[in-house]
Write a structure and sequence with these properties.
Length: 403
């Protein structure tokens, strides 16, 4: 087996075997999907670079790429566009976050068959806008009132989506027979005993949650598959029905929290978390302008989970649909750069991260832009090479199974 495939297999060995096969299949779709599913390779390789440019410590989401920005409804029920995946979040050098997002631009543009010149322009644009926002020392946020261009349209459409659309897409039946649709792609049937245990656990959680106590009943639970890097973790979707209004439904996402894939390569001393779920939810709280609705942590069957509302507005911008609209792509890239810098400014001075003054001074004196771009560009080429090796390994395994 190829060394890249061995590294991937070793990393995923502790995940649910059947679901890992779905992850491997998803990663084979394209170099960009492969990049999304191999965050551990990125940081393992980065940790071996001796001359990587130094930078202040900040809170980073860890797996920042073009599809880890999206819309969600906050605790105030307002729709926001922001960083939305913090499974790998840690206190780490600021340049680690930049290297991953810049690399994602090169990989994504190559996957979409866009000219290399465009990738260069967008990577440089991201870095320029990011440094500008960091230098300002002022965090910013994006909602339907402050957004512009394609992000404004995206959020306006998201805000118009109703719970009925989510119900129509994910639920079947009525009243006592109300269930979550099983499609064996994103929703899978749970073994009866596990299903009953998950539902009972959420009933207990409801009883302790003042906002929802005595208002909802748990109707159904399924195994849920979403994203790429997290496929293989224990993840459940639950359907709740309002006791007074049967038409009012609520979906919950219960996702297992495990150690960040950065942890083996990050030498920075971290806060002492009560659990990995606490690490993820705290990073969300500090870095996002507003946290997702019902964000909390819980322990079930010996594993820790992050729990939050599954919403009809949660979505990502389809970059493939903007291939011929470079002006719109550049506006999205600018927004992503602003949000990245804002997340770091918002969480500055918290639990070991550099204070605002240090971040603004770094942005003012920063001379490592070209070094970061060089690294991102070269590593994007490595991703393409690793992807080809990965596909070759999959084919060899398929041949061995057939023989």
């Amino acid at each position: 087996m190829d060394r890249v495939a061995q590294r991937i297999e070793r990393f995923n060995s502790g995940l649910l075997p059947d679901m890992v096969q779905l992850k491997y299949k998803a990663m084979a779709e394209s170099p960009f999907r492969f990049f999304r599913g191999t965050c551990h390779l990125f940081y393992e390789d980065l940790s071996k670079v001796k001359s990587f440019p130094k930078s202040p410590l900040t809170w980073i989401c860890g797996d920042l790429h073009l599809e880890n920005f999206g819309s969600f409804k906050g605790t105030n029920r307002q729709v926001y566009f922001d960083l939305n995946d913090f499974d790998e979040a840690m206190l780490a050098p600021l340049n680690w976050e930049l290297a991953r997002i810049l690399c994602s631009i090169y990989v994504a543009f190559d996957t979409l068959k866009l000219k290399k010149k465009r990738a260069e322009e967008m990577a440089k644009l991201f870095l320029e806008v990011y440094m500008g926002r960091l230098k300002s020392g002022k965090a910013y946020y994006i909602d339907p009132r402050t957004a512009d261009g394609v992000v404004r349209t995206f959020l306006d459409q998201a805000a118009l989506r109703k719970e009925k659309e989510l119900i129509k897409k994910n639920a079947v039946g009525k009243d006592k027979e109300l269930l979550i649709k099983i499609n064996n792609q994103t929703h899978f049937k749970l073994e009866k005993k596990l299903k009953q245990a998950v539902m009972q656990h959420v009933r207990q959680w409801l009883a302790k949650t003042e906002l929802l106590r005595n208002k909802y009943t748990v109707k159904d639970a399924v195994f849920r598959v979403a994203g790429t890097g997290s496929i293989g973790l224990k993840r459940y979707m639950l359907l709740l029905q309002n006791k007074k209004n049967a038409d009012k439904l609520l979906f919950l996402d219960l996702k297992e929290a495990v150690a960040s894939s950065l942890a083996p390569f990050n030498t920075v001393i971290q806060p002492k978390w009560t659990s990995e779920a606490a690490r993820i939810s705290t990073a969300k709280y500090h870095m996002q302008n507003v946290s997702p609705a019902l964000l909390s942590t819980t322990t079930f069957n010996g594993a820790v989970f992050v729990l939050q509302e599954l919403q009809p507005v949660a979505d990502r911008i389809n970059l493939a649909g903007l291939c011929n609209q470079m002006k719109e792509i550049s506006n999205v890239i600018k927004d992503m750069a602003v949000l990245t810098a804002s997340a770091q400014l918002r969480s500055s001075g918290i639990q070991g991260s550099s204070i605002n003054d240090e971040l603004t001074a770094f942005a003012s004196q920063n001379k490592v832009g070209e070094d970061l771009l060089d690294y991102a560009r070269s590593y994007a080429a490595e991703v393409k090479k690793d992807y080809k090796a990965y596909l070759s390994a999959l084919k060899q395994l398929a041949v061995q199974k057939d023989s």
